[in-house]
Write a structure and sequence with these properties.
Strand order of the largest sheet: 4-1-5-6-9
CATH class of one domain: Alpha Beta
Radius of gyration: 29 Å
Number of strands: 9
Number of helices: 27
Shape: globular
Largest sheet: 5 strands, parallel
Length: about 600
C-alpha cells in the first residue's frame, strides 16, 4: 500500500507522550493543535492525509494514570499504532519517566525515527530529553530537533507553529507569515474596539453616580479597562506602527479622566493618568508636535513629582517620576535644549539608582539603570563630542541589557533594547574611526533584527530598527571606501522607508528617516572617484528642496545637512551655488556650528570639495 494511502487510514494525527506532572501543558497543547485551522490557501499544498478540512485529525492524549501498570496497555499500544506522529513533551519530569520511554520505543519500532517530534517545555536538551530519544538507530545517534516552548509567549507560538507545520506537511515560514497576518487583524480590531471599550467606561461612570459602594466598584472596573488600554492594547497598537491607532487608544483613555475630579482621584488613578500623558507626549513627538509633547510631559511631571513628594521611598512613585524625568529630557534634547536635557537625564539616572538601592534584586529597576547609561552616553557623544566617555556608558548599558534579555529571549522589547545599546556602541566607535569594531556591532545588531522580523514580519518598531541599522551600516561601508555596497544599502533602505510612509503618513519620524537615506545617498555619490560620480544636475535633482514648505516637517539638522551638501556640490563640481549658505546660513544648529546631534556630522568638513 502506498505511504499516502496508509497514512489516510491512521486514526490520529499524533500521540502526545508526557509525564503526568506536565498534564497542564499537555492539555493546552492538545487543545490548541486540534483547534488550529490551516490557512485555506495552504490546504492543497499540505499533506492532506493528516487533515479533515482545515484541521488536523484527532490527536491522542492518554487520560489514564499509568503508575499502577507494569506495561503499556492495549489501548495505548493501539493508539500509538494508529498515530502518524509522536509528540514528546520534554521536561526534567518526562526525561525520568519510564512510561514516556516505553511509548517512544514502541512508536519507533512501528514507525521509525522520522515521525518523532520533540517539544521542549522546560529545561534544556541536556536535562529534558529522555534517553530513549537519543538512542542509536542503525548505528547513528538520534538528534531530534525540538520545538522550543520555553521562551514565553512568542516561544510558545513559534513552537506550536513548528509542530503544526510538521504534522500538516506545511511550510513553517508560510504558517509564521499567516500567523502574523492574523495577529495584525487582531491589533486593528482592538484599536477599533477602543470605541466599544470607551462606551463601557462611560456607562460605568454613569452607573457610578449611585451609591458610594457601587461607585467605588465601578471606578475600579473603569480603571482596570483604562489600564488595559494603556498596556496590552497600546503595546499591540505600537507593534502595528500606525499613529492613528495609538491616538485612538490615547483618546479613549483620556475621555475617562476628562470627566473626573482630579483632586479626588486615588494614587493609582493619578499615576495612570500621568502614564497616559507620557504616552501622548511620546506619540506627539513622533508627529513632530514638539511643543504639544512638552506640555503633556510637563503635566505628567507635575503629577508624579507631587506623588513622590508625599511618599519619597515608594518604588511605584519613584518609577513613575523617573519616566517623567526621562521624557522631559528626551523632548528637550530633541528641541535642542541640551542643558535641560542633561539635568533631566541625570535626575532620571539618580531615581533609577535609588530604585536599585531599595530593591536590588528587581530586574526592572536594573533595566532602568541600563537606560540611564544610554542617555548619559548619548549626551557625551552627541552633545559634547566625547566618544570615549560615551563608549564607556554604552558598554555598561549593553552588558546590563544583554544579561536581562538573555533571561527573557522571547521578550521583543528587551531584545530591542539590546539592539539600541549595540547601535549607540557602534556609533561611538565610528566617531573614533574604529570602523571594524563598529561594523561588528552593527552585524550583531542585524542578526537580532533579522530574527525578530522572521518571527513577526509586521512589527513596525523592529522595521524602524532595520532602517537605522541599514543607514548606519551604509555609512560605515562608505567610510571604508566600499561605496557601491553602501549605495545599494541606502537605496534599499529608502525603498523600505517609503513603503512605511505609505502605510503611516502621519509619522514624521519615518519621513525624516527617509530624507536621511536620500541625503546620505547623495553624500556617498560625492565620495566616489571623480570619474564615477553622476552628473551635477542629476545630484542636484536628487537633493531637492532643502527648505520644506510644511513647517511641521522641518528638522533643522536635516535642513543644515542638506544645505551643507548643496555647498559641497558647488565646491566639488565648480560654479557658484550662493543660495547654499544664503538661504539658510547654518544658523539653526542644534549643538552649534561644529556637530550635528542627529547624524554625528562635522559640517565644517561636509562642505569641503571632494577630490
Amino acid at each position: 500500500m502506498a505511504d499516502g494511502a496508509q497514512e489516510s487510514l491512521l486514526r490520529y494525527s499524533a500521540f502526545i507522550s508526557y509525564s503526568s506532572a506536565d498534564v497542564a501543558v499537555a492539555k493546552r497543547l492538545h487543545r490548541q493543535l486540534e483547534m488550529y485551522r490551516l490557512p485555506r490557501r495552504l490546504v492543497g499544498k499540505a499533506r492532506s492525509a493528516q487533515l479533515r478540512g482545515r484541521r488536523l485529525k484527532p490527536i491522542f492524549r492518554d487520560l489514564a494514570d499509568l503508575s499502577a501498570e507494569h506495561d503499556l496497555t492495549s489501548a495505548i499500544r493501539e493508539a500509538l499504532a494508529q498515530s502518524e506522529n509522536l509528540i514528546v513533551l520534554c521536561s526534567p519530569n518526562s526525561a525520568k519517566s519510564e512510561w514516556v520511554g516505553r511509548e517512544i520505543e514502541y512508536f519507533r519500532a512501528l514507525h521509525g525515527d522520522g515521525r518523532i517530534r520533540a517539544a521542549l517545555i522546560e529545561g534544556s536538551a541536556g536535562t529534558s530529553f529522555h534517553p530513549a530519544l537519543l538512542k542509536k538507530t542503525r548505528g547513528a545517534p538520534v538528534e531530534p530537533l525540538a520545538a522550543d516552548f520555553t521562551k514565553g509567549g512568542r516561544g510558545w507560538r513559534l513552537g506550536k507553529l513548528k509542530l503544526m507545520a510538521g504534522l500538516a506537511g506545511a511550510q513553517l515560514d508560510e504558517l509564521i507569515q499567516r500567523d502574523a497576518q492574523r495577529r495584525m487583524q487582531v491589533v486593528v480590531g482592538l484599536a477599533v474596539g477602543v470605541v466599544v471599550t470607551l462606551g463601557v467606561i462611560i456607562a460605568l461612570m454613569a452607573v457610578a453616580m449611585g451609591a458610594s459602594a457601587e461607585a467605588e466598584k465601578q471606578r475600579r472596573q473603569a480603571t482596570g479597562l483604562v489600564d488595559y488600554m494603556l498596556t496590552d492594547l497600546r503595546a499591540k497598537a505600537k507593534r502595528s506602527g500606525r499613529l492613528e491607532e495609538l491616538a485612538a487608544v490615547n483618546d479613549g483613555a483620556l475621555r475617562y479622566y476628562q470627566n473626573q475630579d482630579l483632586s479626588h482621584l486615588p494614587e493609582d488613578a493619578l499615576r495612570q493618568r500621568a502614564k497616559l500623558l507620557q504616552a501622548m507626549g511620546e506619540d506627539d513627538q513622533k508627529r513632530g508636535q514638539i511643543q504639544r509633547s512638552r506640555t503633556e510631559i510637563q503635566e505628567a511631571h507635575r503629577t508624579t513629582a507631587a506623588l513622590l513628594a508625599a511618599k519619597p521611598n515608594d518604588p511605584k512613585r519613584l518609577f513613575a517620576h523617573a519616566q517623567s524625568e526621562y521624557w522631559l529630557g528626551f523632548i528637550n534634547w530633541r528641541a535642542g535644549d541640551g542643558a535641560t536635557a542633561r539635568a533631566k537625564f541625570e535626575a532620571y539616572a539618580r531615581l533609577a539608582q535609588r530604585l536599585v538601592e531599595i530593591e536590588p534584586n528587581n530586574a526592572d529597576w536594573q533595566h532602568e539603570v541600563a537606560y540611564s547609561e544610554l542617555n548619559l552616553g548619548m549626551l557625551a557623544l552627541r552633545q559634547e563630542g566625547d566618544a570615549t566617555t560615551a563608549e564607556t556608558h554604552f558598554y555598561r548599558s549593553f552588558l546590563k541589557m544583554g544579561a536581562i534579555a538573555q533571561k527573557n529571549p522571547s521578550d521583543v522589547e528587551l531584545q530591542r533594547d539590546v539592539i539600541d545599546a549595540l547601535a549607540w556602541l557602534a556609533d561611538s566607535q565610528r566617531v573614533q574611526r574604529r570602523y571594524k569594531a563598529a561594523l561588528d556591532h552593527r552585524a550583531d545588531q542585524r542578526r537580532i533584527i533579522d530574527r525578530l522580523l522572521a518571527e513577526d514580519p509586521r512589527n513596525r518598531e523592529v522595521w524602524m530598527d532595520f532602517l537605522n541599522n541599514e543607514l548606519a551600516t551604509a555609512r560605515l561601508e562608505a567610510d571604508l571606501g566600499r561605496f557601491r555596497p553602501a549605495l545599494e544599502r541606502l537605496q534599499n533602505g529608502l525603498y523600505v522607508a517609503h513603503r512605511m510612509i505609505h502605510d503611516d503618513p502621519q509619522n514624521i519620524e519615518i519621513a525624516k528617516q527617509a530624507r536621511g537615506f536620500e541625503l546620505f545617498r547623495i553624500r556617498t555619490m560625492l565620495m566616489l572617484p571623480r570619474g564615477e560620480r553622476p552628473r551635477k544636475n542629476y545630484i542636484i535633482r536628487q537633493l531637492g528642496d532643502c527648505n520644506p514648505s510644511d513647517s511641521a516637517r522641518i528638522d533643522h539638522e536635516i535642513v543644515n545637512f542638506c544645505a551643507a551638501l548643496k555647498e559641497r556640490i558647488a565646491n566639488s563640481y565648480g560654479g557658484s551655488n550662493a543660495d547654499a549658505t544664503k538661504s539658510h546660513s547654518f544658523d539653526n544648529m542644534q549643538i552649534g556650528e561644529i556637530y550635528s546631534a542627529r547624524w554625528g556630522l562635522h559640517y565644517s568638513s561636509e562642505i569641503q570639495p571632494d577630490k
